[in-house]
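Example (one chain per record):
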Amino acid sequence: MSPSGTPTSTVAAPVSNDLSTGSTARELTAGAVTASIDYWSTLSMDRWTAATVKPLSLSLETTVAPDDGQKVYLQRATMIAVPGTSTGDLAPLEAQVDAATVSPGYLVLSPYSYSQTFNVGPVDEVATHVTLQITFDFLVQTTPTSKEYAKQTATDTITVAIVADTSDD
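Predicted structure:
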């Protein structure tokens, strides 16, 4: 009871879910590079439980301004999944890295795109959400014919709710 005599209750705040509609699109800017990224999961949101492996797919392409004919390459994409509760973060899962296997990287200048699926492994059963910290390292040619590159880094954060597992074990 509160001092005024009315009952009080504690209700957990709803967890934000950037994939609540099944997908989300973002635009990130890093220096002269603008990255357009679509995120989605092939696993429906009601199945993102602590115990399941949860796929996060993404597709990315970039533009550069001013566009003087130089190319943009993705050198590395990294995802770190950080499970959390209403009171704070839990221990992060091991980082997943997709490093380019070609030099100087994967061409991601529109109309060429990069697609990848990262899998979020099982998390502690007390987790109510997982925050996905995603970093993209780009190399931008300094001129259209140059073998010199400028590195630009863009970061994004996606929060996805973890649903209680109601299955009978």
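Caption: The chain has no helices and ten strands.
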